[in-house]
Amino acid sequence: MRNSFNTAGFSEVVHEIRNDPAEADFWYTAKARSSPSRGLSVDIGPALFGTIKSARSFRVEVGDPADGPCADAPLPLHLALTGIASCALTTLVGGGSSQNVVFDSADMELTCRDGAYETRVAVGGVPEDKVVADLLDQVEQFSPNYRTLTQHVPVALGFGSRPLPGADGAEVAAGRTVACRVRWISGTQLLSRPLGEGCGPDLRVDAPKQLTGVDWGPNPQEYLLMGLAADVAAQLGRLSRADGRYLTWEVSATGREDIGGLLQADPAAVVHLQDVACAVAPPRGAKAASESELTELVRTAFAHSEVRDLISRARSAGLAWQPQADTPVPSQEPGCA
Questions:
Q1: Tens digit of each residue's pLDDT (9 = 90 or more) over 266-281
Q2: Which domain of life does this protein belong to (predicted)?
Q3: For residue 191, what are the domain limits?
Q4: What is the rounded average pLDDT of the residues 88-116?
């Protein structure tokens, strides 16, 4: 055990993958619901870790991006940024633990500013700069969610039982700043604090028990998919309300992670998320809308999703870092007054 990471447990997972490649496929699901009366929320669905199904229960109440700042809940983009930053920090600390590096602290701030992404990583207790630089190089290569941010990852769209091809690829013109700061606690446990536009409580992040976590919260990949499902659901609610239709929408987002890429168990493994898909169920209370009108609404909501845009377009987001002791302490946390 180093940094409370069960390195022996990770070695067992690598051994299982090399004996049976099917154990490397981890499938995740998130389900969001936008209701005129109950607002916006998102849950995780059952996950498949290799050949083992795991049903865990986590829900996050989400702020609607249309409500503007100080929604008293994380925005969908906060969830997605949490997923990326927590995945990067887990990869950093996990990689260091496997190389006998001991951390006093580690945190990462990830900011989306007008559609561009900026990072700041602070590391404490590691005296050699080259060690940190080498570990951050590994993060850029092997962190699944960070690679999903920096690579082009297609996102499929479906409505009801029908796929809607050609809906991916539209660029979203963002004009605001959303950020989160993720702090490593111990092992695979982290806390994320939403910053900037929108507020809410800290978000717990953890790896599943199959990857030596304790199920303290959703894992990084689930947070990224939760952000996608919640964002599309929020867009659907806003667009239908604008047309005078107060509909309840349910959206699921799924994705596959080849854990062999993260653990470097398979040199040929694709590291970023794969088979990412968003499925929209026919809404309740839609009798006044035609099938073609609803289809166009779904396409528009998907095209306007910032999180869909984050996943599907390749980004530049170099990891800037500094020793923790040199990190300036802000006089006031950005966020709600």
A1: 677 788 999 999 999 9
A2: Bacteria
A3: 2-324
A4: 91
